[in-house]
Amino acid sequence: MRKLRYRIYQFLDMTYFASERGRCKELAQGYALPGGFQRIYHYHIRKTGGTSLNQSFFASLGADPAKTFTAIAKKFNKRLILGDKVVVRDNRYLFNQGNYFYGFSHNPMHALNLPPKTFTVTILRDPFKRVLSHYKMLLQIRELEKKPRFFLKHEAAWLGSGLSGYRENISKEHLLRQVYMFSKNFDVQEAHDNIRGCNFYFFTDNYVEGLKRLQDVLNIKLTVLHRRSTQDIQVEIPDKAREKAMEMLEPEYRLLAMLK
Length: 260
Fold this sequence. Notes:
Layout (H helix, E strand, L loop, with lengths): L1 H13 L3 H11 L10 E5 L6 H11 L4 H10 L4 E4 L2 E5 L2 H6 L4 E4 L12 E7 L2 H18 L5 H7 L5 H8 L2 H4 L1 H4 L7 H9 L3 E4 L3 H12 L20 H10 L1 H10 L1
Parallel strand pairs: 1-4, 1-5, 3-4, 5-6
Antiparallel strand pairs: 2-3
């Protein structure tokens, strides 16, 4: 399915979106960032604050963050031109082509082939806090949203009975996403090396400080925008369920300890 989607995007970019493609290529040739970089790509790990980072970049381009987020999600090829800046999400073909200023997706590093001179950034979070945030999001979807997006509706089936049921149903790729994002084989050392190979990474717990440092590195004004995607749902986590989850998340805790 992933390869088929890639081919479809490739075909449409050369036919239906040919005019837009030419315009984006022309604009991208003029992009120049500190350090000789030409574009920015965000390895967006879910529930780490990545959506807030994306919206900060939208705002830096003079766009309305919320409206832009909705507009790019609705665009079939997931590409928008904001003034003279091209923004892309969730389109591996366009990411690999490189004709954009800012790109982001949940795709793991090993599924992409980003061109040289791409400034890469990611955000990392305490593993249990990240998993608990995702769990709460699915609870909210099940209880409050009448028509959730397809992939979220699918994930809501992971809930089962409490956190223990969720932990048993969720795939390893999602449970250990911070490792899998940077290592197809869940190799902690490989993930560590690949994250260290990114041009910038920071932690959710120090989000404001990290964003300010990123702003200085890129010489782009980035306003702190906190986008809370889930309500503050209160859930009671039994000690045994928490301990088991922490045990299963041990590779990620080891990874973050190495990085810090």
